[in-house]
Amino acid sequence: MPVLILPGLGASALMYSAAPYQKIPGVIYLDWPPHRGEDSVSAVAERIIREQGVGPDWIVGGTSLGGIVAAEIAKQTSVRHLILISSALSPAKINPVLKSLSGYAEIAPVHLIQLISGKLSLPFNNALLSMFSAAESQFIRAMCTAIFEWEGNVSPACSVCRIHGADDSIIYPPDHDAEIIPDAGHLLALSHSRQVAEFIGDAIGLS
Length: 207
What we know:
Rossmann fold
């Protein structure tokens, strides 16, 4: 039973490098594949399905954009379970302010921001900033627009396991059917690695 977990936008599999994640057997923490012009959530999902051989016995999930792509994977092919970490089944749950900013994605100096972020030193965000500085700027630009053009998957055919920070202002917490972590924001996978790892382990145990 393969388990595939995707990172957030601008992140990599290093998002799950903390010890609690590494103790879960059989989980593939995947990097985003090198960008080849994919400009939609559907195209990214299709590529991952093809390259990883995702099938009916798989469990797929991810953080933020990773969860959105996982939800699209579940829409395109049969999977056993869907695990959403700080993520959504519809762009309607994404802060609308970000939608207005997404129109500037093509002219945003992403590469410059990456260079700067790689040199910043903040106790909590070092890991995230390091990943962001190494991410492909064209992929970031493409996905900033793509997530708001995504049709969503509001009624997945598989079971859905969700965990979310109560104070997430990027993707709003679900109204029901989710484990809500108090005093946690959008970077839940980094700030609360033990709780998220335990959640993934429990979700895998549902099969």
